[in-house]
Write a structure and sequence with these properties.
There is one protein chain. By secondary structure, the protein is mainly alpha-helical. The protein is 69% helix and 0% strand. The chain folds into 2 domains: 1-140 and 324-354, no CATH class; 180-320, no CATH class. The chain is built from 18 helices and no strands.
Length: 354
């Protein structure tokens, strides 16, 4: 049996247990959920090396001499992940241990983050298991999965006024994957909210961004127009070439489902909040980054670093109105099933799960 079917079987069991416990007003021990997470992390670590486009790259790099010489890390960039892999290779010398280490770190950290922000953390985690980001964090973009988890914890620490811890985690994320530097957008918007306090300002800006995104999605040559000006930037020719290549990769399918979902969640959360708060700003920043990246497969990865706010917003929406609390979990269950189906169809058609 393909491991993707085992994954969805585990998801189904977790979802049924969670919904049953909710309506029976009982509590399921976290140890049960953690056991499921441990099992899934081990299972995906033992996946075929042909599954996912990056797995074979990590395996070959791990077995080669790439992770034995610091000179292989260009200018010290992303050196923290390099050191992490060197340690794993020195102790275990098995790429599957690397896969497991990344998976368990990402999956466990997200579980406890959801638990901290919502009473419905188990339901939110089921959504995470159904989401394509679970599969891509555990199969493909391992470095960005680790960096995203560090950014998530960094943002939590930031709102606890743990500035030193937040900055340390933020810099650690940057040293794991350079693209995580984009999370600074959230900090800029959060500090700006004191000057643009009326929520209507953000609502109008969000509306403008959504409209521009739909226009952008229909302009096929927009990225190529941007590419014409890349040569004016004072950077190396190799980096210019890579940027042009990234801009030329279109993936407008992201606009058709995930982006619509983000807009829906943002509007719903906006309707129940009279003032801006950290989650609202996080969702707004997520929407902004996603809007400018939604037509490009590479650039859309930048939105992953603020993706955590979508989950927090869903949790607060569920718990907002006591009259809807009885039907919201059932609706979220249907939502999880639809998300799992969409993820499976899109990834199997693309050959990602072969």
């Amino acid at each position: 049996m393909s491991i993707i079917y085992i994954h969805y079987a585990v998801l189904a069991v977790m979802l049924v247990l969670t919904i049953f416990a909710y309506y029976r007003k009982t509590h399921i021990s976290d140890n049960i959920y953690l056991a499921f997470i441990l099992f899934l992390s081990i299972m995906w670590a033992l996946r075929p090396i042909t599954m996912g486009s990056d797995t074979i790259f990590y395996v070959n790099s791990f077995k080669s001499h790439y992770y034995t010489q610091l000179s292989n890390v260009p200018s010290g960039r992303e050196i923290l992940f390099y050191i992490f892999v060197v340690i794993v290779k020195f102790i275990f010398n098995d790429p599957r241990v690397l896969f497991f280490s990344v998976s368990i770190f990402v999956n466990m950290s997200l579980f406890f983050l959801f638990k901290e922000y919502s009473r419905h953390y188990a339901l939110l985690y089921c959504y995470y298991l159904a989401h394509f980001l679970f599969l891509t964090f555990n199969i493909n973009i391992l470095r960005q999965g680790m960096a995203s988890s560090l950014i998530f914890v960094s943002l939590i620490s930031y709102h606890r006024n743990l500035s030193i811890k937040s900055f340390t985690l933020y810099m650690s994320a940057v040293l794991v994957h350079l693209s995580s530097i984009i999370a600074i957008v959230y900090h800029l918007l959060f500090n700006l909210k004191n000057r643009l306090q009326p929520k209507i300002v953000y609502d109008l800006l969000a509306l403008i961004i959504v409209v521009l995104t739909f226009i952008n999605a229909n302009i096929k040559n927009l990225m190529s127009i941007f590419s014409q000006y890349i040569h004016l930037i004072p950077i190396s020719e190799i980096l210019k070439y890579r940027i042009i290549q990234y801009l030329s990769i279109e993936n407008s399918a992201n606009v058709s489902f995930s982006y619509y979902l983000t807009i829906l969640i943002f509007l719903t959360y906006s309707s129940i909040r009279k003032k801006t708060d950290s989650v609202y700003i996080g969702m707004f920043a997520y929407l902004v980054i996603y809007a400018f990246a939604s037509t490009n497969e590479i650039l859309v990865r930048l939105s992953f670093y603020l993706w955590i706010f979508e989950f927090i917003a869903i949790g607060r929406i569920i718990d907002y109105n006591r009259y809807t609390r009885n039907i919201m979990p059932a609706l979220v269950m249907l939502f999880v099933i639809a998300t799992a189906a969409k993820t499976y169809i899109s990834l199997t058609e693309s050959g990602f799960l072969k």
